[in-house]
Design goal:
The protein is an alpha/beta fold. The chain has helices at about 45-50, 75-80, 95-105, 120-135, 150-160, 185-195, 210-215, 230-235, 240-245; strands at about 5-15, 15-25, 30-35, 60-65, 65, 80-85, 170, 200-205, 215-220, 225-230. It is about 35% helix and about 25% strand.
């Protein structure tokens, strides 16, 4: 099975600091792969190299066998890489539906047309409503995004990316900052997305119980390097991982 994402000797330095150092991985298609590691391990930098926010000082990134190392963010997005950040990024004064419909219009190369009646875009609106149903926000379609809880804003951001129909969904700590009460709903959403097996999900997350229950495979980063890669049960038993990150085991 050809990797959907492959990195070769991927390296990024900030001054004298090697944030990512020689990381080579294969990400299988239609799987959920989590990246874990302590703060400063290089997880987000690695994400930024894959999505195009950063250009490596050495190494390459491949998408479905195509070298995309030099491609900018928007070009990678057109190829099928969708990225959600730790900080929510929505239009607060638009409704939930309008936020997603704009993404659907962009995917259809229609852009933002404020003077065109919404009825002209009925098919696009139906697509937007389907995406909102996927993330559990149908009941809040008419609400202004600014009124949403932080957890619902995270769902909306995921909906906006899903509306672009990416083959690879990059999620950087989707539970960051959301209340404990909202975490189960986010986990349920990720489970639904995984169960469809119609896209690859790459997840950075600190909640180990969540990572272990969701992941098909786990990458462990430590001091910018890839310490381990394997099935959740193998990662739990790995003594190097326990010593470097898990503190002797998973609870």
């Amino acid at each position: 099975m050809e990797a959907v994402i492959r990195t070769e000797d991927l390296t990024m330095a900030f001054g004298g600091l090697l944030a990512v150092n020689g990381v080579s991985v294969d990400i299988k298609p239609n799987t959920l792969t989590s990246i874990i590691g302590p703060n400063g391990a290089g997880k987000t930098t690695f994400f930024n190299l894959i999505s195009g926010q950063l250009t490596p000082v050495r190494g390459k990134v491949f998408f479905k066998g195509k070298d995309i190392t030099s491609l900018p963010v928007h070009s990678r997005a057109r190829l099928g890489l969708g990225r959600c950040f730790q900080i929510t990024n929505v239009f607060p004064r638009l409704t939930v539906l309008e936020n997603v419909r704009l993404a659907v219009q962009a995917k259809a190369h229609l852009g933002y047309r404020p003077l065109t009646p919404a009825q002209r875009f009925r098919e696009l609106e139906e697509k937007a409503l389907e995406v909102l149903d996927t993330v559990g926000l149908t009941g809040k379609a008419g609400s202004l995004a600014v009124t949403l809880t932080h957890g619902d804003k995270r769902k909306l951001e995921i909906a906006i990316v899903l509306a672009m129909d990416p083959e690879v969904l990059l999620l950087d700590e989707p539970t960051a900052g959301i209340s404990l009460e909202e975490v189960p709903a986010m986990i349920e959403l990720l489970e639904r997305l995984k169960e469809k097996r119609d896209r690859t999900i790459l997840l950075v997350e600190h909640k180990m119980d969540m990572v272990l229950s969701l992941s098909d495979e786990i990458l462990v980063m430590f001091n910018g390097t890839l310490l381990a890669q394997g099935l959740p049960e193998d990662i739990v038993r790995d003594e190097r991982v326990q010593a470097a990150y898990l503190g002797g085991g998973v609870t």
